[in-house]
Write the structure tokens for this entry.
Amino acid sequence: MTSTVKIKTKQKAAAYEIRIAGGSLASSGIWAASVLSGTRGRVAVISNKKVFRLYGDQVIKSLSAAGFATFVHLIGDGEKFKNLRTLEATLKFLSISGISRTDAVMALGGGVVGDLAGFAASIYLRGIDFLQVPTTLLSMIDSSVGGKTGVNSSFGKNLIGAFYQPRGVLIDTDVLTTLPQRELTAGFCEAVKQGAIGGRKLFDKTADFLEDFDRRKLARGGDNAAFRDSLVSMLSHQVSFKARIVAGDEREDAAKMDVRSRKILNFGHTLGHALEKVTDYRYFKHGEAVGHGVCFAAELSKNLGLLAQDEVKLLNDVVRRAGNLPPLTGIDPRQVFATFKYDKKLINNSLHWILLKKIGEPVIFPHSEIPQAALMSAFKTIARN
């Protein structure tokens, strides 16, 4: 089964397609040529050692067979390497490799690789073509969709970056067979987050997939057509939801405050980003932090009288289906809350939370109207669970 999702933008030249299919890395060169309008120049493949060891030879072979000259740059594995130092080294590599305005950058890896490579492509020579080939579940449904790129810094996560759309995204579901459980859990938490804000149909589809998920089926994905089709369908629905949000609010308009705002995609991320920062990006996978953030936002919504207890319980139950999250033991909530002032969602020096009235009905809520006691109570509750 192959699924194609179209990303529409206000600038038609920046529109692109996301192709989802098992085994598609084998034809990544043909795909690259098609989305780059037949150009056969140089491609700088940005990856990390772990991913490149698994899939690099296959991708390079396919690109070469399609007529591309390839250059490989490997960065460190993990959120701690998504920084200005790695960015500068990547830009230097592009220059030394002779990458020109008619060439392209391909990100082969998870969200860290995609965010950093995309940002490098956006500023090198004032912007060159960029291809996304995500290899983690989280990056497939989140960071590869929508054109947000960037790096972390000492003063916050993703505060340095750019909106820069790729020329195309290629998702090969077969690569998920090599992911460790924590990476799958991180991706599933993001899927639950999108279901919670995307509507009851998407939420139920995600919950049902997690209820039936069996890692053994994933390992046999190539031999199990029904499971592979179910996986492609789940990914397609997730990507389609985000594509609709991006199409209506590509650059996250600060003045847009309704449920069609791109801001709603930050559900679970306010606390999630804060947890990552206070643990120096070394303790949580991004999606794991978002999983805690989803439970926190649900509990906070209940504390503020917005969300019913049975909805909170349902959301918590589905997050648990995603897998075990690292405990919050020993993390001081006061330090976590102190990082909110560095959140990139600050508007006119005011933080806005994405909360829920019910599953599928997000609301943008001003931080100034949330009592400190409600925040503390919500944190203590999720820390006990």
User: Anything to note?
Assistant: The radius of gyration is 20 Å. The chain has 14 helices and eleven strands. The longest strand covers residues 156-163.
